[in-house]
Input
Amino acid sequence: MRRILHLDMDAFFAAIEQMRHPELVGKPIIIGGDGDPTKRGVVSTASYEARKFGIHSAMPLRRAYRLCPEAVFLPVDYDEYLKVSEKIKGILRSFTSLVEDIGIDEAFLDITDLNISSEEIAMEIKKKIKDELNLTCSIGIAPNKLLAKIASDIKKPDGLSIISEKDIERLIWPLPVRKLWGVGPKTEVQLKNMGISIIGELASISLGRLIEYFGKSYSNYLYEASRGIDESPVITHWEPKSMSRETTFQRDTDDWNTIAKNLAELTREVVDNMKGSGYKGKTVTIKIRFSNFETHTRAKTLDDFTNSIDILRKAAFEALGRIELKKKVRLIGVRIGRLARG
Ligand SMILES: [Mg+2]
Output
């Protein structure tokens, strides 16, 4: 059973503004456009205080102003929000490298293999974000991305919802169809015309009937999503492109045995590292730096991705063989690149 965590920051832009302007805490804040509510533009984020007036994202600023003229209107400072976002993603990656970035204030983590309970990891993440950035987030944990995303939205702000497959009927089916990822306003209207407004009603429709209204692949998606089925993996864009090790000799050397022994050792370390994190590689590059700091690299590309120490070591020695060892060697390094999971 997979464990997928979805993290969603609470009123992210508004929370950042309140953090850097503490006098705004507790006040209705609306962030959008250049912060002038008499101009055209839409609400990017409204603080929870502003949401009480019925203000939500994508609403025209002028309308938001009519609903709550006393609100503080601020321009979008995307650069600042991005900086904070990167810090949050850094915190998430300190827990696992299996992080899928899905927006400035949202991410999925695959926590299946972490040796810590779902509740504990959620509390740890919340605490770290609170301590380091003074921001709150809502977290959902579920057996897949679809359910995790719905779960993070169940309790907000500062929420935590852990759901399992047996909660689908009780927690997911009463929700409006719009809560399903991939159901937009257009589909919502079409479903409404079919007499379907909640997820449970969608789950009662046969696949054949859905196909009468929607394309085949989208029907399949709706059919499975309404039943809480989602096999899609967490896709990490933050993949290392290469792994490497290098060593500087205590004393520059032209002793072939010493050089060969070190090359074999470094290759083994990189391969162990690759295996430990589930990668295979295709390119082996070696680097030699001579005593005069002249540096040479040679690469060998393999036909297939591999994590075989024999194949990779052989490739490393082939690459070394193409460097003329005409001076004493100061440093030797090995890099394995073109990494892929597998
Ligand atoms: Mg958010």
Observations:
- The chain has a mean pLDDT of 93.
